[in-house]
């Protein structure tokens, strides 16, 4: 009933050069408010496909995706963009910052879509916590990988989304920066947020409270 994310029999196949790739098959998933759900699977097991499907960026071949009770693929493109901008934060392995914008503009990039004005104090407080407040007027190319991911995390957190979707967010980070990112995601959940993160590492297990494995057979375990 109160699921933040609900997948019902979601399947996705790709057709490439005449061959058929079944990236996801018959996936069911329920994510409740406050859950830190970690989805694990080998490379090629469909983790990115799953997250893009939840985020409304990749329509499944069959099945339904509900986010905050909305059947996301029943929304128009315009509604989907608005819905995402307000409710869903994303973090990617490769950061996906915009190279020609300063850190400050990267963090506030969603404001144009949401129309929400971020208070300067909130921006400074969040970037201080993440150790990047001195980087606000720099460009992404001037930052280390760890700093880039902390900027991406600030971009996701600043809009106070209901759910954060994270695709191998520690894949390019050292241990110290990985801990900062995972601890921040953990705190976000402790304060009532919800995270769905995919990874092929065992290391993030300790931060999650639900573990889902995908591949041959999807199953959910409470940690
Ligand atoms: P993971 O993130 O777990 O590595 P992906 O979701 O990226 O897995 O991919 C799952 C499978 O789907 C892989 O076999 C991959 O090669 C294939 N795949 C992913 N995206 C595409 C695409 N756009 N076109 C064709 N095949 C794809
Ligand atoms: Mg992937």
Strand content: 25-35%
Structural class: alpha/beta
Sequence of secondary-structure elements: EEEHEEHEHHHHEHEEE
Helix content: 25-40%
**Strand segment tally:** 10
Number of helices: 7
The pLDDT mean sits at 93
Oligomer: single chain
Low-confidence stretches: none
Radius of gyration: 17 Å
Major sheet details:
6 strands, mixed
Question: What is the first-to-last residue Cα distance?
Answer: 22 Å
For the largest beta sheet, what order do the strands appear in spatially?
A: 6-7-8-3-9-10
Q: Could you say which small molecules are bound to this protein?
A: adenosine-5'-diphosphate, magnesium ion
Shape: globular
Question: In words, what does this structure look like?
Answer:
- It is a single chain.
- With 223 residues, the protein is α/β, with parallel strands linked by helices.
- It contains 7 helices and 10 strands.
- It has helices at 47-54, 77-87, 103-107, 111-114, 120-129, 145-157, 175-190; strands at residues 3-16, 19-32, 36-40, 62-67, 70-71, 88-92, 163-167, 194-199, 210-213, 219-222.
- Strands 6-7-8-3-9-10 form a 6-stranded mixed beta sheet, sandwiched between helices. Strands 2-1-4-5 form a 4-stranded antiparallel beta sheet, with helices on one face.
- Helix 6 (145-157) runs parallel beside helix 7 (175-190).
- The radius of gyration is 17 Å and the shape is globular.
- The two termini are 22 Å apart.
- The model has no long low-confidence stretch (mean pLDDT 93).
- Adenosine-5'-diphosphate binds at residues 14, 16, 21, 23, 41, 43-49.
- Magnesium ion (MG) is lined by residues 47-48, 167.
């Amino acid at each position: 009933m109160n699921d933040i994310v609900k997948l019902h029999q979601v399947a996705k196949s790709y057709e490439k050069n005449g061959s058929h790739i079944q990236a996801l098959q018959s996936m069911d998933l329920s994510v409740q408010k406050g859950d830190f759900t970690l989805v694990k699977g080998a490379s090629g097991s469909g983790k990115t496909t799953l997250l893009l499907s939840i985020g409304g960026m990749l329509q499944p071949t069959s099945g339904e995706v509900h986010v905050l009770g909305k059947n996301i693929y029943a929304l128009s493109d315009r509604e989907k963009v608005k819905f995402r901008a307000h409710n869903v934060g994303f973090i990617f392995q490769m950061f996906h910052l915009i190279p020609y914008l300063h850190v400050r503009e990267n963090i506030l990039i969603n404001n144009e879509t949401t129309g929400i004005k971020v208070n300067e104090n909130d921006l400074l407080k969040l970037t201080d916590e993440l150790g990047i407040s001195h980087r606000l007027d720099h460009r992404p190319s001037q930052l280390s990988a760890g700093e880039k991911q902390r900027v991406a995390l600030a971009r996701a957190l600043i809009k106070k989304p209901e759910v954060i979707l994270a695709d191998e967010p520690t894949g390019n980070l050292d241990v110290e920066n990985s801990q900062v990112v995972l601890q921040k995601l953990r705190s976000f959940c402790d304060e009532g947020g919800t995270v769905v993160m995919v990874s092929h590492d065992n290391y993030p297990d300790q931060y999650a409270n639900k573990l889902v494995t995908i591949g041959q057979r999807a199953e959910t375990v409470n940690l």
